[in-house]
Amino acid sequence: MHKIALEMKFARSEYCPSTLLPEEKRRIVEVVGEGDPEPALPRIGHSYLVPKQCQLARYKPDGSSVYVRHLDRCNLSMNEMGVVEFLRASDYRGRVVTAILYLNKSDWNSGGELRVFDHHEKGEERDEKGLDIIPTGGKLILFDSSKVEHQVLASYGDDPRYALTCWVNGILT
pTM above 0.85? Predict the structure, then answer.
């Protein structure tokens, strides 16, 4: 089993997160995979950097807003990308942990799931199925920015989908 994301629920009012629930209320989201277990989050050098960016995303509930499958960390070299693209991606090369906090209602059932895919090495078969995580309000998702491919599915219903995302920077070891 590969741990690919850590999911935590917050005790909160309808929209505002406050304190973490007790340990027994947290759970690790796992995807079945081959090989040895890997940590859900990367091992990082001795320091973390305060996130440079925070993104508040609002997805329309009409099925038109999605985010395609991607990694949050750019792992390509300058030779693979070219100088200009390599320089444009400078903010993405230092990301080691992605944190997503959902700001939706606690009974959210309008789509917009975060689909996470099991990590694969070059040459290995790519996970095409993934695991869907419902973006209920107060849920915090943490994962390795360099290994966990993910996408956002379309939302439907009356309310837009909100997600607050930030990226912790550091050095992968």
Answer: no
